[in-house]
Specification:
The complex is a heterodimer of chains A (385) and B (336). Chain A is an alpha+beta fold. Chain A folds into 3 domains: 111 residues, Orthogonal Bundle (Butyryl-Coa Dehydrogenase, subunit A, domain 1), CATH 1.10.540.10; 108 residues, Butyryl-CoA Dehydrogenase, subunit A, domain 2, CATH 2.40.110.10; 132 residues, Butyryl-CoA Dehydrogenase, subunit A, domain 3 (Up-down Bundle). In chain A, 47% of the residues lie in helices and 14% in strands. In chain A, α4 runs antiparallel to α5 and α7 runs parallel beside α9. The radius of gyration of chain A is 22 Å and the shape is globular. Chain B is mainly α. Chain B has 2 domains: 174 residues, Orthogonal Bundle (Butyryl-Coa Dehydrogenase, subunit A, domain 1); 146 residues, Butyryl-CoA Dehydrogenase, subunit A, domain 3, CATH 1.20.140.10. Chain B contains 11 helices and 8 strands. Classes of the chains: A alpha+beta (385), B mainly alpha (336).
């Protein structure tokens, strides 16, 4: 057990910190749910790419820097401390890029990988449907072969960046007769294709972070299938594996969220309130324990291990912790919690957005209920219900 | 960056597990519950493989291990509900003597602890009782913020009836003698005890979850295993996740103490408060999922339930350690 970073890692941290300090925009970018905001974020992704901080974990042969998971975790932490903008290119960099490297043809890799890295193409993920959320294999969007194309009809939903993304990697049903998992194909869709229509969904926090996407006789060239036709489920499992084995949500975020609330408690004269002190100490302990858990998984990942079903534990831990921190924050803030402009916080509007986003944390990327199913069945060996 | 145990540390864990299973099986716990006296053969067996000298320097006949080397052994002690003052002697007393004892105190006690000839107990942080004080050759007691290393003849002990009959509690009285005083260590000793108790608690929680999984996989109702119902599964998934993260927090605290990291003190309180809370969750889930059979005297479950309840409060409860954490975040870091 040795928790010291190597000289090279410390050097990387110093370099990343200095670069972020010099380059993170002083003013917050406009929210990415308008065309203007989205393009401002794309520009930021280009800046990151030019400095070698996009696709850090990609192999050098594909234009990345082959960064270790420890370097990735260091960068994520420094990025957070520098209050860097939202990353709109993560689906391409973290999911589509690595999936292409694993399953794409040479032609497909040449075509898309460089444009992902440079953010010329921003990708969205077309997995969920109105009737296929937690039960993903229930997806119905239909693709029928017609000459050199597939003709696609159906609907995707909860598509992050769906309104402005250039491309979507999607799961479509190519064989409705086959068993559920066997008739699915993984395909890349140009969002500018005729018959593809994205409508932003306005969330309860007022933002439009995702969209629903409708396909009406959209013709997509068959050479945009990734992997084999009807073998899309296994490609998708690789994709989700990249999500699972990425360094976990940064613990520094949660430790800071708690200390921010300590500041708010002080400002409200609650420093001596034993209930507030106990509650914040409990959350601090939770964040500290999560940090230790993240170090444990980081060690496994650096050895090249896959976390498998244990990744569900990580998701369950951070999402429930995040939600509990912000929920307790409501108690600390009291009547100031509903104010978007006057509260004892650096940025009350942003805190409020984080509060509601925390409420979504136990829903997106696999609900807590699904994670508990996975943990109990695949880690604890309990029988399926 | 390596947050894991070495092959040697894992081998030591396996050795401890095998030894505890053999020397201290549930049947032996039962005998203690039915009134048998402490049998020194278990301690002798531990000494023969070096466990009693795990934290004693090699020069004094020990293995020269640190808090990290000890971490997994403590979990095993918890998994076995080991009825011995291992935590007190090996995790607390020996390191305290090494760090804060006089040359003579070290010479007197450390070789005997390593050799298994002396067992120690501790009375720290205002605790009312000391485990195994009746059998102890040495008591390290706190009084007025100072620690005293008291030999058998310098303290008196009186047995207290305890809910866990394999955990022998005593109230003790003693006189402070300047010659017995250690040069410091009251806080460090308490935090070490807290981290060690967290480790044992995590072992207890792991055992409770193992027993519960075995039960819900084999117990059928409505024509299927009760472990196939989500209401049962989800509770156990939560308990397991809680306990696994508590283990990581406790290992971190052991590392921080062994390396005198700046956050060692808060890490120790995090470990004990979080592990105590995880243990409460595992304890409650275990009995609930066992149903009626878990509430019987004949089922072994309650041997672990009761040890868990004892250690949740020992060496600082969750709330006590959260008071300590709150001090840290409100007075040192709270200006965010």
């Amino acid at each position: 057990m040795d928790l010291r970073y190597s000289d090279a890692e410390e050097g990387f941290r110093a370099e990343a910190r200095a670069w972020l300090h010099a380059n993170v925009p002083a003013e917050r970018l406009p929210v990415a749910d308008t065309r203007e905001g989205f393009e401002a974020h794309r520009e930021w992704e280009r800046t990151l790419h030019a400095a070698g901080y996009a696709g850090m974990h990609w192999p050098e042969s594909y234009g990345g820097r082959g960064a270790s998971v420890v370097q990735q975790a260091i960068f994520v932490e420094e990025y957070l401390l520098a209050a860097g903008p939202e990353r709109i290119n993560v689906l391409g960099l973290n999911l589509m890029g690595p999936s292409l490297m694993a399953h794409g043809t040479e032609e497909q890799k040449r075509r898309w990988l460089p444009r992902i890295l440079s953010a010329e193409d921003v990708w969205s993920q077309g997995f969920s449907e109105p009737d296929a959320g937690s039960d993903l294999a229930g997806l119905k969007t239909r693709a029928v072969r017609d000459g050199d194309d597939f003709v696609i009809n159906g609907q995707k939903i909860w598509t992050s960046y769906g309104a402005y993304a250039d491309w979507m990697f999607a799961l479509v049903r190519t064989d409705p007769e086959a068993p559920r998992h066997s008739g699915i194909t993984f395909i890349a869709i140009d969002m500018r294709t005729a018959g593809v229509e994205a409508r932003p969904i306005r969330q309860l926090d007022g933002h439009a972070g995702f969209a629903e996407v409708f396909f009406t006789d959209a013709r997509v060239p068959a050479d945009q299938v990734i992997g084999e036709v009807n073998q899309g489920w296994s490609v998708a499992m690789t994709t989700l594996g990249f999500e699972r084995d990425a360094p976990a949500a940064s613990p520094a975020r949660y430790l800071r969220a708690v200390t921010d609330l300590v500041g708010a408690a002080k400002a409200r004269g609650l420093s001596d309130d034993p209930v507030v002190r106990d509650g914040l100490a409990e959350l601090y302990a939770g964040a500290h324990a999560y940090r230790a858990h993240a170090l444990r998984t980081l060690t496994r990942l650096s050895r090249g291990e896959s976390l498998g079903a244990d990744a569900s534990m990580t998701k369950l831990l951070w999402s429930e912790l995040e939600q509990r921190i912000y929920e307790f924050g409501r108690h600390v803030l009291g009547p100031y919690g509903e104010s978007l402009s006057d509260a004892p916080l650096r940025n009350p509007r942003l805190w409020n957005a984080y509060y509601w986003f925390a409420r979504a944390a136990t829903i997106y990327a696999g609900t807590s209920e699904i994670q508990r199913n996975i943990i109990s069945e695949r880690v604890l060996g309990l029988p399926k219900g | 960056m390596e947050f894991d145990f070495t092959a040697e540390q894992l081998a030591l864990r396996d050795l401890a597990r095998d030894l505890f299973e053999k020397e201290s099986p549930p049947s032996r716990l039962r005998e203690l519950w039915e009134g048998a006296e402490r049998d020194p053969s278990c301690w002798r067996a531990m000494a023969s493989v070096g466990l009693t000298g795990l934290t004693v320097a090699e020069g004094f006949g020990g293995m020269g291990g640190d808090d990290v080397d000890l971490a997994l052994v403590l979990e095993e002690a918890g998994r076995a509900a080991l009825p011995e003052p291992f935590l007190e002697t090996v995790a607390v007393a020996a390191p305290l003597l090494a760090e804060f004892g006089t040359g003579e105190q070290r010479m007197t006690w450390l070789p005997r602890i390593a050799g298994g000839e002396a067992v120690a107990t501790v009375l720290l942080g205002g605790a009312p009782f000391a485990v195994d004080a009746g059998d102890a050759d040495l008591l390290i007691a706190e009084a007025g913020g100072e620690l005293y290393a008291l030999p058998r003849e310098a303290f008196r002990s009186e047995r207290i009836e305890s809910e866990d009959r394999a955990r022998r509690l005593y109230s003790v009285s003693f006189d402070r003698s300047p010659a017995a005083r250690l040069s410091g260590g009251a806080e460090r000793g308490f935090l070490r005890a807290a981290v060690a108790a967290a480790g044992m608690l995590n072992g207890i929680s792991m055992r409770l979850i193992e027993m519960t999984l075995a039960h819900v996989k084999s117990r059928n109702q409505f024509g299927r295993p009760v472990g196939s119902f989500q209401a049962v599964k989800h509770r156990l998934a939560d308990a397991h996740s809680f306990v696994e993260s508590a283990r990581a927090a406790t290992w971190y605290a052991a590392y921080a103490i062994a390396n005198s990291a700046p956050d060692a003190s808060v890490a120790a309180s995090v470990a004990k408060s979080y592990s105590s809370d995880a243990a409460t969750a595992a304890n409650r889930a275990a009995l609930q999922a066992h149903g009626g059979i878990g509430f019987t005297w004949e089922h072994d479950l309650h041997l672990w339930l009761k040890r868990g309840k004892a250690l949740e409060q020992a060496y600082g409860s969750a709330t006590e350690h959260r008071r300590h954490i709150a001090k840290g975040i409100f007075e040192e870091r709270g200006d965010a």
